[in-house]
Amino acid sequence: MKKVLVLLLAAVALLLGACGNSQAEAKPLADIFNDIKAQVSFENITELSSSRLMGRYYGITDEMAAEFAGCINASGVSQEEIVLVKAVDERASAEIKEKLDNRYQSKLQQNKNYNPEQAAIIENCTVDQDGLYVSMIVSDKAAQIKEIYRKEAGLE
Fold first, then answer.
1. Residue 25 pLDDT class (50, 70, 90 cuts)
2. Residue 75 and residue 17: Cα distance in Å, rounded?
3. Which candidate in 22, 62, 73, 96 could, as Cys together with 80 as Cys, close a disulfide (CB 3.0–4.6 Å)?
4. Which residues of 105-131 are buried (b: 16+ CB within 10 A; e: fewer)?
5. Torsion 75-76-77-80 (CA) sign
6. Is the pLDDT of residue 13 over 70?
7. Mean pLDDT of the chain
């Protein structure tokens, strides 16, 4: 009887391992962002290449983010902004989501009165949380960018 139980537990463990989370198979976010840039044209962007920029724009620290990638439009007019973050744990993921929600709301409020065209683009975009992955994709090409991101990150 013990042998049957041990074999059954081993089979279940093997099955669970084989059906693991597809997020574990995801590419690094920097590679995903490179794939996005290869398929979508951007103008006047500054890449989010350092944790200093993540802290400055979003308040996201190295202790919260396992990895990140994205860009901000540097023109000052276009509100295009792509932020892809993988949190270190669930608590950090929730905190990152809150920080990106705050950034999103700030962008929307700043543009409602003086730049209604950009405000409309922002309103059609979202901040999304999928487990450890949190993203803010603000772009007139958001649907295309989100599709690439979700596929490459294994979120579909």
1. low
2. 47
3. 73
4. eebbeebeeeeeebbebbeebebbbee
5. positive
6. no
7. 87
CB 13, CB 70: distance < 8 Å = no
Q: If we measure between CA atoms, which residue out of 56, 118, 119 comes closest to residue 83?
A: 56
Yes or no: say if 30 and 59 are a contact pair by the CB < 8 Å rule: no
Question: Following DSSP, what letter does each residue of 42-96 receive, concatenated?
Answer: --SEEE--SHHHHHHHH---TTTEEEEEEEEE-SSS---EEEEEEESSHHHHHHH
Q: What is the mean pLDDT of residues 58-71?
A: 96
Q: Are 72 and 97 in contact (CB under 8 A)?
A: no
40 exposed, middle or buried (CB, 10 Å; 0-12, 13-18, 19+)?
middle
Q: Please name the residues in contact with 39: beta carbons below 8 A apart, sequence gap of 6 or more.
A: 144, 148
pLDDT tens-digit profile of 104-132? 999 999 999 889 999 999 999 999 999 99
**How far apart are the C-alpha atoms of 133 and 130, rounded to whole Å?**
5
Is the confidence at residue 67, as pLDDT, over 90? yes
Q: Hey, which residues does 46 pair with through a beta bridge?
A: 72
DSSP state of 132: T
